[in-house]
Structure formats: structure tokens, C-alpha cells
Amino acid sequence: MSEVLSPINDIVLVSPIETSGTSKGGIVLPQSAQSSGSIKCGRVFAVGNGRLNDDGTRAKMQVKSGDVVEFLNREKSPFPETHDLLIMQETDILVIIKEQE
Fold first, then answer.
1. CATH of the domain at 52
2. Nearest to 79 by CA among 18, 13, 11
3. What is the bridge-based pairing of β-strands 68-72 and 93-97?
4. Residue 75 domain-assigned?
């Protein structure tokens, strides 16, 4: 039986991507961010259905599966060893990197 990962609320599962000093989108990361590892890059694996608002509605998620993103590398919860994924909230994501057409 295979696993299906379905995050809830505003939780995002991200697969980390190793990067150099320049992000995939061409953003030059400051040396302080590179050396401290405070900003990382990854590909969104799965997203929840959105944060629950006070009025009972769901906030629309701004990221979707497959998006390449840069995120704050705070203390993230790694998924069990069988998956190379990080668990984070959508608010930890700084930018979505889109290919120019």
C-alpha cells in the first residue's frame, strides 16, 4: 500500500533543492543568507486546503504543487526518513520562482 500525503490547513510540504549563491530565479542571495543558510530553495510537493479564517471560510493558498519557492530556513520539521520533505507553514515562503516565457 502506498502513502498519500495530504497536508491540512496552511501546511506546505517542500522538497529542498541545493542552490549556489544565486537562486534559480536569478536572485542573488546575500553572503549572510548563504553562510547562515537562512534562505533555502525547494519545490512544493503538496499543500493544505488553506488557513481557516475567523468567519469559517478558508484563505486561498498562494502556492501549489510543483512551484519552486524560496523560504526562511527556520527550525522545520523534517518528514520521517522515508521522505526528503520539510513541513512548514505557507507564511515561511518568501517568493515563488516562475520561469519567464
1. 2.30.33.40
2. 13
3. antiparallel
4. yes
Task: Tell me whether residue 5 is in a domain.
Answer: no
Reduce the DSSP state of residue 33 to 3 states and report it.
helix
pTM of the model as a whole: 0.74
- Strands in the chain per DSSP E: 11-17, 39-47, 68-72, 77-78, 86-89, 93-97
pLDDT digits (tens, 9 = 90+) for 49-80: 999 999 999 999 999 999 999 998 776 666 66
For residues 11 and 45, the answer to whether their CB atoms sit within 8 Å is no
Beta-sheet strand order (sheet of 68-72) = 77-78, 86-89, 11-17, 39-47, 68-72, 93-97
- Residue 83: give the domain boundaries: 11-97
